[in-house]
Structure prediction request, 208 residues.
Amino acid sequence: MTTTGTDIVELDRIAVHEALRMVESAHAEDWERDTPCAGWDLRRLVAHMAAQHRGFAAAARGTGHDPDSWREPADLSDPARTHREAATDVLAAFAEPGVVEREFTLPELGASFPGRMAIGFHFVDYVVHAWDVAATLGVRLDLSDDVLDIALTVAQSVPTDPAGRGPGFAFGPSLDVPPDAGALDETLRLLGRAPEDWPTNSPSLPSL
Prediction:
């Protein structure tokens, strides 16, 4: 993954805020909708998103090896609030001085990674999960081409081990990429999404 010279913390913040914007736009009747994550409705997807925020925050602070840090929240009566609190936590953790030089333990990937690389994984995760929520709701993302180009660079380095892909995981097996695919579509397909199955004909939502 080559993100040298880029502010990966700022890119991550942009992706997290876009995911927040998508989740905050959901209504009560939306939580049981199917999502691009096979077998997950929107409530379960947002639970996963909140758990990943908490886990990455713990990893940034040196406690990512603790399984409790990665558990999905038990109370999802207000999924948007739960997700917002977790997002606030991870953004605060990533804003700490020297975070990109730390080692992050990421149990789902079975290894520790340099902070810059780990935050890159979180960044692309939230570009994709922001799209997941947008696709579920039938709206478009609002992310710049520069952000999406870096997301593609990171997606090309995400481990493809079949043991960590498929039902029950955040990403499915990689799909073939058409030669005319844009950066977002290629990123989605590398991470197991089929964007053509989830048309988003509605305009993007207004900024919060």
About this structure: The mean pLDDT is 89. The radius of gyration is 16 Å.
